[in-house]
Design brief:
Layout lengths: L1 E2 L8 E4 L3 H12 L4 E4 L9 H5 L11 H7 L5 H6 L7 H11 L6 H20 L4 E3 L1 H4 E3 L5 E3 L5 E3 L2 H15 L3 E3 L2 E8 L5 E8 L2 E6 L2 E4 L8 H8 L7 E2 L8 H8 L4 E2 L5 E7 L23 E3 L18 H9 L6 E5 L18 E4 L2 H7 L5 H14 L35 E13 L2 E2 L6 E3 L5 E7 L16 H25 L1
Helix pairs in contact: 1-8, 1-14, 5-6, 6-14, 12-13
Bound molecules: flavin-adenine dinucleotide.
Length: about 500
């Protein structure tokens, strides 16, 4: 084993180069520590899932004035015209509680909620820009006016790629070096049980990089088929991965080997409906556009031609992350989303990309024949049953949970139910795309990694997807980037503080 003089003598080593890692590195540098970041990926693939993200960040805000602190280029006309809504801490707690079936760790949740806006403002101060999420989180009301919904009015300028680019530029300005193609494979633990560095593979050789503190911000195990099968269950290995191929669970394994407490929903993950023919891992040229998230406006059927979920149970933000898993459980692990002429103009932009698995027909009979792998007769009977069950007396309104439902079906649709009867008809084939896994390590309020007795492991901190206990069963859209940024910042400043105390 060689010594790692090339890496300098950093006080804090951050493993990863996504959002959580960048926030940790920036916070540690702000607290006066010398910092480096280690990235498994080459430069062209760097930045983890954060770079693949659409870029919405769930933060509290008390109205358009506070929103303007994040988006100072909102014009007076925009402020007067549109209804940006507000999102209180109480709303955030309610959403996190309801969506995770009240399992979210109250301490971790409290920190995310209470620090979300301030962390976004801090990022803005570091040169990260925000924009209003006109595209996916607002609906036209009358004429030019738009109403934002779902509590997600702010997103990163340039989406995930813009976020990572701006964060990496900020790191560069602070003198934080990122070492690419540097895979962390283990922690250096001293005789007292304190973490004292990281072992890495770089240019084909193993190095030990000494450090006073280590922040693990290197993702979950979503890109590791063996761990997906082991923890998510049968079929988990066959899911597609929406983002980076580099989050293989090594960070979690390193922490567990150092005595960290496993925590959270290890058999749970964020998974969505994802184009059936998408590649096995994400493609940065397409980004998140393989997702197909307009199902609340239509229906989904499986190989038997049957509906299998309440497509309109809630706003997309609150159902999309669990329906991928439900699709994985269907025969053949696929589904078709069905739309008619009434809603086709409202499909999200991702339905219009070139790389889409789509069929179109002028009659339902013709469509049924084109749905590969689907029992056509059963499908036609299902559509008829569904159409007859729609409460057409309730007005249809995409901007609210309109209560326009079906009645009397084994699985009813709770909102936005429309008869599917106006040609042309379109159908889109989807399978399960895993975004990230929910199980990870236990951290304290200061982002210290805890051992199985609940004591902090000296010198070890963690943030981002690697942290367990935040999400269970499901996930409110925009919380991954919020949790990563909040705990990244906390972990960086805690690690710097620890390094300083160790020094004195
Ligand atoms: C397609 C898609 C769309 C999404 N959209 C949104 C959204 O709009 N809003 C939202 O809030 N969330 C979104 N998410 C989720 C969000 O991207 C993640 O929750 C968040 O980015 C995780 O940040 P992180 O820093 O923990 O991990 P990542 O950003 O994945 O970073 C992990 C880093 O660690 C590196 N790494 C891994 N293992 C090692 C190792 N052993 N050694 C060295 N480096 C290693 C990786 O290369 C990477 O740089 C989306 C995710 C995807 C895939």
């Amino acid at each position: 084993m060689r010594s790692a003089t090339d890496f300098g003598r950093p006080e804090v080593v951050v493993v990863g180069a996504g959002n959580a890692a960048a926030c940790a590195a920036l916070a540690a540098a702000e607290a006066g520590a010398s910092v480096i970041m280690l990235e498994a990926a080459p430069l062209e693939d760097c930045g983890g899932n954060s770079r693949y993200a659409a870029g919405s960040m769930r933060v509290t805000f008390d109205g358009v004035n506070e929103l303007s602190e994040l988006i100072p280029d909102l014009t007076d006309e925009e402020k007067a015209l549109h209804d940006f809504g507000k999102y209180s801490a109480a709303d955030y707690y309610d959403d996190m509680g309801r969506i995770t079936q009240y399992r979210t760790d109250p301490d971790l949740c409290e920190i995310i909620v209470s620090k979300s806006f301030d962390t976004a403002r801090w990022l803005r101060g570091k040169g990260v820009r925000f924009q209003a999420s006109y595209g996916n989180q607002s609906h036209a009301v009358d004429g030019k006016r738009r109403k934002f919904w779902g509590g997600l009015a702010a997103e990163f300028w340039g989406g995930g790629p813009g976020l990572v680019e701006n964060e990496h530029k900020a790191c560069e300005r602070e003198g934080i070096r990122i070492f690419y193609e540097t895979l962390a494979v283990g922690l250096v633990v001293d005789d007292n049980g304190s973490v004292a560095g990281v072992r890495v593979i770089h240019e084909g050789r193993e190095h030990a990089i000494p450090a006073r503190a280590v922040v693990l911000a290197c993702g979950g195990f979503e890109s590791n088929a063996e761990m997906r099968a082991r923890y998510l269950g049968p079929g988990g290995d066959l899911a597609k991965v929406r983002g980076t191929r580099y989050n293989t669970g090594l960070g979690i394994q390193m922490a567990l080997a150092a005595g960290a407490m496993p925590y959270g929903h290890w058999s749970g993950c964020h998974a969505v409906g994802w184009d059936l023919n998408a590649p096995p891992f994400g493609d940065l040229a397409v980004g998140d556009q393989f997702q197909k998230h307009s199902y609340p406006w239509g229906i989904m059927v499986n190989a038997r031609g049957e509906r299998f979920v309440d497509e309109g149970a809630d706003f997309r933000n609150f159902t999309y992350a669990k329906y991928g898993r439900v699709i994985l459980e269907q025969p053949g692990m696929f589904a078709w989303q069905i739309y008619d002429a009434k809603v086709i103009p409202h499909l999200r932009p991702e339905y219009r990309i070139r790389q889409v698995t789509k069929v179109r027909a002028d009659s339902l009979e013709d469509l049924a024949r084109k749905l590969e792998g689907v029992d056509a007769d059963n499908f036609l009977r299902e559509i008829e049953r569904y159409n007859n069950a729609v409460r057409t007396d309730i007005p249809y309104n995409m901007a609210i949970r309109d209560g326009r439902c079906t009645v009397g079906l084994p699985i009813n649709k709770s909102n936005w139910a429309n008869r599917i009867d106006e040609p042309p008809f379109e159908a889109y084939a989807v399978t399960c795309g895993v975004t990230f896994t929910f199980g990870g390590v236990k951290i304290s309020r200061n982002a210290e990694v805890e051992d199985c007795a609940g004591r902090p492991i000296p010198g070890l901190f963690a943030a981002g997807e690697i942290v367990g206990g935040i999400f269970y069963h499901n996930y409110p859209g925009g919380t991954g980037l919020a949790a990563g940024a909040v705990f990244g910042r906390v972990a960086g400043s805690s690690a710097a503080g620890y390094a300083r105390r160790k020094d004195s």
